[in-house]
């Protein structure tokens, strides 16, 4: 069982915040569980991340654009490292290259 290695609780809180804004219950469950268990979930989280980035352009986390951008950078690094370690790099790349 390979857990997502968040660098701070704020990263995870931000992801759950945007998942709520986007009404994405699947992603909330995955992030709360702190692990991706199959390719379908990997694709779900990868796609969600980029939707979260788009949403952050119109609605900054905690109303602070600088803090939001800083946290997005931390989240992408955390997720990319997790996807690599968990063997889901191609699922991440499927959405990162769009």
Note the main sheet: none
Measured by DSSP, the beta-strand proportion falls in under 5%
Q: Mean pLDDT, as a whole number? A: 95
Portion in helices: over 70%
Report low-confidence residues grouped into runs of 5 or more. none
Number of DSSP helical runs: 5
N/C terminus separation: 30 Å
CA-based shape: globular
Order of helices and strands: HHHHH
Radius of gyration: 12 Å
Number of strands: 0
Class per helix and strand makeup: mainly alpha
Describe the protein in words.
By secondary structure, the protein is mostly helical. The protein is 73% helix and 0% strand. It has 5 helices and no strands. It is globular, with a radius of gyration of 12 Å. The protein starts with 8 loop residues before the first helix and ends with a helix.
Summary of the model, kept short:
The protein is mostly helical and 98 residues long.
Which properties best describe this structure?
98 residues, mainly alpha, 5 helices, globular
Topology:
Elements: H1 9-21, H2 25-33, H3 39-58, H4 65-86, H5 89-96
